[in-house]
Amino acid sequence: MFTKEEVKEFIIKYGKKWLFPDFYNKVTWYVVTLGAGIILTPAPFKLVVYNWIIESFNLNAGNTITLSEMGSSTADYWLGFSLIISALLHNVFSKWLLHQNDIQDRVKAEKVSAVDEALFKEFLEIFPSGSRSAYLLETHDFGNSFSLDSLRDIDKFVDEWNCPEKSFINPELESIRQELWNKCHEFSWLIAKKSAPIPGGFQSVVPDRVRGDLDWPEWVDNDVKAVNEMASEVFLLHQGFIKSMREALKC
After folding, report:
1. 35 pLDDT band (50/70/90 cuts)?
2. Of 167, 56, 149, which Cα lies nearest the Cα of 112?
3. 71, 30, 38: which is closest to 54 by C-alpha?
4. What pTM was computed for the model?
C-alpha cells in the first residue's frame, strides 16, 4: 500500500511530534484536559461533586441512589487515562491523514510538472533562444530587408500553439505562454501589413520605390519604428517565457 520511502519519511517527520504532540487540534486538547482533570482532581473534591450530582438527581427524579451504587472510584482513573490515550491516538491519526494528503498533492504536482516539462522541451525544439527568428527579433533593424525564412519559427509557433494540446497545465505558465502567443500573432499580422516582397526574394517594410531616398516619408519611418518596437517586445517576452519555464520546472 505504501512504499518503504513513504513510511520512512512519515516516521522521521512525525516521530518527534508523536512523542511530544503539539495539540493543534482543539478536540484533542479538550479531551486530554478532561482526562487529566479526572485523574488529578483530589478525591475529596470528587466526592463533593458526586454527592451534589446524586442529590440533584434524587431530588428531581424521586429515586434514591447512593454513592456506593455508583461503583468504585478507581474507574475514574481508567476513564481519565482512556480519554488521554484516545485523544493522543486521534492526534496521531490526524497527522497521518495530513501526511497522506501531502503525499497525494506532491504526486499530483510531479505529474503536472512532468507534462509541462515535456511540452516546454517541445517548444524549445521549434523556437529556442538560438533560433533564426529569435536572432532576427533581437538584432535586426527593420529599416533593412529580411528573409521570410527568418520568421518560420515564429510562424510555426503561431500556427500550431493555440490549441488545448499545446496548453500548460500550470495556470501561471499557461498565462505566460498565452501572452507570448498573442504578441507573436500580433507581430506576424504587423509584418504582413507593413512589409512587401522586393527583388531578390527578400521582404521589406520600406517600399522599394523609396529605399534609395535619403529621407523616407514620415509614414515609412513610423512603420519601421512600429515593427522594431514590437520585435523587441516579442523578444523580451520570449526570453522571459523561457526563463520562467526553467525556474518553475527546474529544467
Report:
1. low
2. 167
3. 71
4. 0.60
